[in-house]
Every structure is written in structure tokens, then in C-alpha cells.
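Lab channel / #folding
Pinned by the channel admin:
"Please post every new chain as: sequence first, then the C-alpha cells as a reply. Keep commentary short and put observations after the output so the thread stays searchable."

First post following the new format, from NK:
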Amino acid sequence: MNFIGNEFGHPEWLDFPRAGNDNSFHYARRQFNLPDNKLLRYQHLNNFDGAMHHLEEKEHWLNSSHQWISTKHQDDKIVVFERGEGLVWAFNFHGTKSFDGYKIGVLWKGKYQVILSSDDSEFGGHNRVDKSVVHETGGEGYNGRPASLQVTLLFFSFR
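Reply from TO:
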């Protein structure tokens, strides 16, 4: 989902050449040098982008025909979807609230483990997610899926 933040490569503003700026290209460029400045947080976005690419190389989820959105909760600001074989993505976009024991529906019964967390320190997070925890599906389905899990979904804050 990191492509959505296209403005991260344009930290000042984006302004294409036009008569009002004397047809200047100055603000119509990406600043690929931003991750190199360790005083800025762009390094964390770059690290997450790299981790997403690595996961795609391993799991091939982008070209998978299996895609299912099981949760879109406006008030909680939660999105949960399946993409690829056995992969479940859970995003908490809430600005101030974390959820412990949040129930999500999944297609595949069995055991799940976190393999990518934006809360890892390399991504600017606080390392609050224990990746060694194994989550096992319960006996009942949820949100139109035949199985369910209870997970912790943290909101992301900068330090």
C-alpha cells in the first residue's frame, strides 16, 4: 500500500510546469535522496517499501487471483483483506486507537503468524508486535469467511 503515499516523494509540493511558475520543473520532480538523510523519516518508508518487495518476491501475492476484502470498518478505521495463498493483511488506520483481540474473518483455517509489521523499528515503529506469537483460527467464521482470528491491531505513532 505504500504506493498510495505518492506525496512522500514530493515533500514540498507538486507543481507541474505551467505559465504561473514560468514553466519550471523545479517542483515537478521526485526527491529520491530523501531516504539518505537520517534526520528524516523517509528512510523508514524506504525500508518498508523494500520489505514489501521482498515479501512479493517470496510469496507472489501481487499476481494472485485470490483477493478478498473481509473487513472495511469505517469507525474503527480497519481494513482486512486476503491476497495470495494464505496471506491476510490487516491495517489499522485509526489515529489514536489500538485494538486488542480484534476479530477478523479468514478463509483458511489453521495457524497464522505475523510476517510483516509496520511497527518494527526499521520502519519507524515501536516494536510492540511479537512476531513469535502464533494465532490459531477459532471454530466459527466471521464476516462471511469460514474461520476467524483474534489479533492485536496497533495504531502507528511517530517517536
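NK: The domain at 64-153 is CATH 2.60.40.1180 (Immunoglobulin-like).
TO: also worth noting, The helical segments are 42-59.
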